[in-house]
Specification:
Elements: H1 7-35, H2 45-50, H3 52-66, H4 75-88, H5 94-110, H6 116-144, E1 152-163, E2 166-173, E3 187-193, E4 199-205, E5 215-220, H7 231-239, E6 245-248, E7 265-270, H8 274-287, E8 293-299, H9 308-317, E9 321-327, E10 334-335, E11 352-356, H10 359-371, E12 379-382
Parallel strand pairs: 7-8, 7-11, 8-9, 9-10, 11-12
Antiparallel strand pairs: 1-2, 1-6, 2-5, 3-4, 3-6
The protein binds flavin-adenine dinucleotide (FAD) and protoporphyrin IX containing FE (HEM).
Flavin-adenine dinucleotide binds near residues 44, 49, 230, 253 and 275.
């Protein structure tokens, strides 16, 4: 909560934040990394380079300011950030450092407009938001039985090419211990030592149901054309082979399709967004093979369509599974992009729909689904990058 004294300053700064949000967070990261260069190992420097992180933090701060009187509205956003923070090992003692630099960046960007009462109000707001995160993160560390930054050494047992640019890696604990449970849809953060000397972390959804074969991730190699190649995905493709060791976090993530009930479910994905859906589908095939499932996936073409074998295996076990595939190019599937009107009908109000794919896919499907009568309470999404939030408003 925020004091009555500070409230008007926060309310009045929403418009200013909208205007300067990205400049503020860009300044913030520049100053933060200048003072604490080691923090570069914690942050995703790819998202820093392409601007996604700046937009995301700006969106979070803005969402907070806009909802300061109604913190419940932030619930799902906070939960997502908390899981992400815990998967990369954020500690309570990081918050004052970040707060000081955020306040400093607001002051630097707004210049004379950053009056003492305005800065005091933001200081109070930041600390109340930080308290919320610190408490939730401590609870999640405790629940998962891990400490901040703790990783587990895994040994790769299989590296299997799944499509033109995706390799699936199976892994078990190096010490031979049983792995902790996870829910389909959750991800692990993988830590890799880059040639630059930096360590970088990236999240990868577990792409198979929990089981005896250990964990599996499926990594798309990001080659950028005119843009620099993705650092971690290329490192994983180049270095990981059977027998390699890799440091990974405990599984986290709040996007967890309901795999255990017997109600109908709709799983919609595009591109590498197929990974959490395969984990969910394989789990449903194990525990509820009679369940009504619509599994629709959109890919560029057949050569860029990973995990076709998993889908075929599920199809052979699940009588009520409806599989739809869309290819933008080439034959062998429905032609073009995914289109809600071309999916089988389902009871709109009573069925959970799970979405994962690139941002343009998510925006298009989210809006089409809402227009088709799916209540937002039935829509769940995973974004493979910092959440942008814009299409949810
Ligand atoms: C919850 C979650 C689950 C995920 N699950 C999966 C999964 O199952 N499989 C999977 O493959 N990925 C998954 N991802 C994505 C993954 O975490 C990485 O983001 C992805 O592998 C790219 O990382 P990278 O290090 O290779 O690329 P980065 O080095 O981080 O680069 C990211 C992008 O930025 C571009 N870029 C780099 N520098 C610049 C610049 N200067 N200007 C403009 N653009 C630039 C690159 O070309 C690239 O396209 C998931 C992400 C999240 C958050
Ligand atoms: C109240 C303060 C904070 C807010 C509002 C905030 C907001 C966010 C948001 C919106 C994301 C993106 C989540 C997603 O959609 O994936 C994120 C991720 C992240 N945050 Fe925070 N954060 C806060 C504090 C901190 C602190 C104290 C640290 C520690 C230095 C930190 C480090 C990170 C890291 C490392 C990521 C992962 C993304 C990346 O790798 O760059 N954050 N945060």
């Amino acid at each position: 909560m925020i004091s009555a004294q500070s409230r008007p300053y926060i309310d009045a700064s929403v418009a200013v934040l909208r205007e300067h949000g990205v400049t503020i967070t860009t300044t913030f990261y520049r100053n933060l990394f200048a003072e604490f260069p080691d923090l570069r190992n914690l942050f995703n420097m790819g998202n820093q380079a392409n601007g996604a992180q700046q937009q995301s933090l700006a969106a979070a701060v803005f969402a907070y300011a806009a909802n300061i009187g109604n913190p419940q509205a932030l619930g799902p956003v906070v939960e997502r950030i908390v899981h992400k923070h815990v998967s990369v090992g954020i500690r309570a003692e990081h918050y004052p450092i970040v707060g000081r630099h955020l306040l400093g960046a607001i002051a630097e960007t707004l210049g004379d407009a950053a009056t003492a009462p305005l800065l005091a109000a933001w200081d109070e707001a930041y600390h109340s938001l930080a308290r919320l995160f610190i408490d939730a993160e401590q609870a999640l560390y405790a629940k998962s039985g891990t400490t901040p930054g703790q990783t587990r050494t895994m040994r790769v047992t299989e590296a299997r090419r799944e499509s033109a640019n995706v390799v699936a890696f199976r892994m078990v604990a190096e010490d031979g211990q049983a792995l902790p449970a996870f829910k389909p849809g959750q991800y692990i953060s993988c830590a890799v030592p880059l040639a630059t000397g930096e360590r970088q972390l990236r999240q990868y959804s577990l792409s198979d149901a929990p089981g005896e074969l250990g964990w599996r991730i499926s990594v798309k190699r990001e080659t950028g054309g005119a843009l620099p190649d993705g650092q971690v995905s290329n490192w994983l493709h180049a270095h990981l082979t059977t027998g390699s060791l890799i440091e990974v976090s405990h599984p986290f993530g709040e996007f967890t399709p309901d795999t255990e009930s017997d109600e109908p479910i709709v799983l919609l994905s595009a591109g590498i967004g197929i990974t959490p859906m395969i984990a969910a589908l394989n789990r449903i095939a194990q525990v509820q093979p009679q369940r009504h499932v619509i599994f629709a996936h959109a890919a560029r073409d057949c050569a860029h369509h990973p995990h076709q074998d998993d889908v075929e295996a599920a199809r052979s076990r699940m009588l009520n599974l409806q599989v739809l595939t869309f290819y933008e190019e080439g034959g062998g599937a429905l032609a073009g992009r995914m289109d809600v009107d071309r999916l089988p009908r389902w009871p709109r109000g009573e069925t959970n729909v799970y979405l994962c794919g690139p941002l343009p896919f998510m925006r298009a499907q989210w809006m089409a689904l809402v227009e088709a009568g799916v209540p937002v309470t039935r829509l769940h999404r995973e974004v493979f990058g910092p959440e942008m939030l814009d299409y949810l408003n």
